[in-house]
């Protein structure tokens, strides 16, 4: 079991999210999906479980800052290499700081589904050498669908989910 980041949800689930689960977090805007995902990452980093996040509508630097605000204990875990990002957003907004972020793979945009897959595979190869489990977040499926057609996005997700489960990740898909 991996902690969800919500004590109440963990209690309802009998201790957390089952290892290898792929959970869809669905709901209208401003419901708290992003906060749940960030708390999921924070709790797993605090438990020394690595975390990998694919961001399609936020800069990885901003997410890193948000995670550190939730709990400053994230920063040492990040420095230790437990936090990885695949960032499809920063280049699209012209973020100049991208080269300075250790553990982040920058892509040109959310349309690069093959690039996302390759970057996730690369990050996970490094993670699974030392860890049996890790947390995975994709934020967000809506962005993937907006930039490609739904059939292509869902075929991509089917393959991605199979891959992350095979290597011991527990995933949240927003």
Notes on the protein architecture:
Helix content is 44%, strand content 16%. The chain is α/β, with parallel strands linked by helices. It has a six-stranded parallel beta sheet, sandwiched between helices. Helix 2 (33-46) crosses helix 3, helix 5 packs parallel to helix 7 and helix 6 packs antiparallel against helix 7. The protein starts with 6 loop residues before the first helix and ends with a strand.
Which terms would index this structure?
6 strands, single chain, 174 residues
The largest sheet, given as strand count, sense and whether it forms a barrel, is: 6 strands, parallel
The shape, in one word, is globular
* Class of secondary structure makeup: alpha/beta
Number of E strands: 6
Strand content: 15-25%
**Count of DSSP-assigned helices:** 7
> Going across the major beta sheet, what is the strand order?
1-6-5-2-3-4
Computed over alpha carbons, the radius of gyration is: 15 Å
Mean pLDDT: 93
The helix/strand series, from N terminus to C terminus, equals HEHEHHEEHEHHE
Summarize the entry for a quick read.
By secondary structure, the chain is an alpha/beta fold.
Give the SSE layout.
Layout (H helix, E strand, L loop, with lengths): L6 H6 L9 E3 L8 H14 L4 E5 L4 H11 L3 H6 L3 E5 L16 E3 L6 H16 L5 E6 L1 H7 L2 H17 L2 E5 L1
Helix pairs in contact: 2-3, 5-7, 6-7
């Amino acid at each position: 079991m991996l902690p969800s980041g919500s004590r109440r949800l963990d209690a309802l689930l009998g201790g957390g999210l089952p290892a290898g689960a792929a959970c869809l977090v669905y709901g209208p805007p401003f419901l708290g999906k992003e906060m749940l995902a960030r708390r999921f990452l924070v709790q797993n980093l605090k438990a020394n479980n690595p975390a990998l996040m694919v961001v399609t509508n936020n800069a990885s630097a901003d997410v890193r800052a948000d995670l550190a605000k939730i709990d400053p204990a994230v920063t040492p875990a990040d420095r230790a290499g437990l936090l990885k990002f695949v960032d499809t957003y920063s280049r699209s907004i012209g973020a100049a700081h991208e080269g300075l972020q250790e553990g982040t793979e920058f892509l040109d945009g959310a349309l690069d589904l093959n690039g996302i897959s390759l970057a996730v595979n690369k990050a996970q190869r490094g993670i699974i050498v030392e860890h049996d489990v890790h947390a995975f977040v994709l934020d967000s499926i809506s962005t993937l669908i907006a930039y490609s057609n739904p059939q292509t996005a869902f075929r991509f997700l089917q393959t991605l989910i199979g891959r992350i489960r095979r290597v011991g990740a527990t995933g949240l898909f927003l």
